[in-house]
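Morning F.,

Quick status update on the modeling queue. The single chain you submitted on Monday has been processed. Sequence for confirmation:
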Amino acid sequence: MKILIVIDQYENLSNGTTISAKRFAEGLRKAGNEVQVLSTGKVDGNDYALKTYKFPKIIDKYFKANEMVFAKPDEEVMRNVFKNQDIIHFYMPFRLARKGVKIAEEMKIPHTTAFHVQPENITYAVGLGEKKYINDKIYTYFRSYFNKFRHIHCPSNFIANQLIEHGYTAKMHVISNGVDDDFIFSRKTKPEELKDKIVITMVGRYSPEKRQDVLIDAIYKSKYSDKIQLILCGQGQCFEKYKELSKNLKNKPIMKFYEKKDLVDVLSYTDIYVHSADAEIEAISCLEAIACGNVPIISNSNESATVQFALNEESLFEHGNSQDLARKIDYFLDNEDHLKEMRKVYAEFANKFRIENSIKLMEEMFREEIGEYEKKENR
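Structure tokens below.
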């Protein structure tokens, strides 16, 4: 198949959606497909670039703090790129994709989309994350775009059910964003400076809905607090806030963005992985940690799909409750034999979500859309 991926940003590797798009592009190519990408920023090979949309300074400052980039649609470029494709897959429900759908429909080219922007990603950033009626309004706003498609890629059952509940009419294809083979069960020796520390890690943007603040507070409350070395892998708008919140911990948290190779190393010597987010469509970072042999402790938030990765009650804590999280951390540290046993169980569980399986399911979705489109045009 000739597949075009349309996404606003394809360079920022601290962005989960970008990482997902790159993995799918690479996997689809390995499977024998011809894949091109239309996005902002630098391009490789046969990919195509668009200009970045310019916002007023105050809005632009907010988007930059959250590492968000939006493409400026260019109809001439888009028509030129679209005409040679068997199918077009859109990632984000914003100006680029909305314009792209109209062009694809006019040019009679099959098209699919993905749901990667949870309303809570927007509302938590402005302090309104728990206002259900506002999140519902955003689902309604997005619906006008998503209901133009017959097929939607949903990274989890959770988000597929959310879309159905909010009146989305397309067929939902539940396909994990996929763990690549660099994340494998391989326990490594800690660096010299950490050899006497208990390493607790979380991976994710420093944004309000990820709730690293709950994890920081739980470290204070753990009976192992003086021995714990917290590693927060990521970057984002809450960096200074988390730095201030953690200033009285005995061991200063390590807060930085890790490239994949270094991230795999960190996850391979981590003692416990925590995912404290209140809102997640999937959280591939948690799956990657599990694949490396980590036992997770996950927020049980009703707005998070990550709950699906917890294999027992010890791996769940009451969302937003740092005391309960501290209790779960202490439980595993008190029961090292159980912790070691569950590492193998979790690593095996993660193999169900390997990227190879996801690529096959994406190809099936694309073929289904192409087949249905051809039937429609031949009536």
